[in-house]
Each structure stands twice: as C-alpha cells, then as structure tokens.
C-alpha cells in the first residue's frame, strides 16, 4: 500500500518485492474487490481511514445546495414544484 500511495507502478513494486507485476496487480484487484472500491486512489484512502468516496457537496444529502450536476449540463430532477 505504501508504495502504491507513493505513486509506484506495479512493475516498480514487483521489482522491489521480487515478484511479477501480474502478482502485484492481482493482489491490488483482490483488495479492491474485498473492500468494494473501484480505484487505487479509493483503496489508499480506505487504508488511511478516510472515506473512499467523499460527497463533494455535503449539503446535497440535506436537500440543500445545487447538487452534483450543477454547472455541468446535468439537469436537476423535477420535484413537481
């Protein structure tokens, strides 16, 4: 994990550990599946005790604010107002 967090490639990690880069990739895949994350960044965040999928708009969960799609051409849902 530490080497991954430092930005090392699978090949670099494999060389340092004396294993194949395919072994490193497979271990990373297994960890990602086990912890239900979809990227190495999320895996690193989880290992550091951080939320791997933080909400970019904390007010969104309270029904406040512009929402995730605001300003990106994503229409807001029509709530019948």
TrEMBL record:
CDD domains: LuxR_C_like
Ranges for region Disordered: 47-81
Gene Ontology MF term list: DNA binding
GO biological process, alphabetically ordered: regulation of DNA-templated transcription
Residues in HTH luxR-type domain copies: 1-51
Name this protein carries in UniProt: HTH luxR-type domain-containing protein
Native species: Roseateles aquatilis
């Amino acid at each position: 994990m530490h080497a991954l967090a430092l930005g090392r490639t699978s090949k670099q990690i494999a060389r340092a550990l004396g294993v194949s880069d395919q072994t490193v990739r497979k271990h990373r895949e297994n960890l990602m599946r086990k912890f239900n994350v979809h990227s190495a960044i999320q895996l690193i965040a989880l290992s550091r005790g951080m939320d791997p999928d933080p909400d970019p708009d904390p007010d969104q969960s309270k029904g406040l604010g512009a929402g995730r799609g605001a300003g990106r051409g994503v229409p807001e849902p029509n709530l019948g107002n």
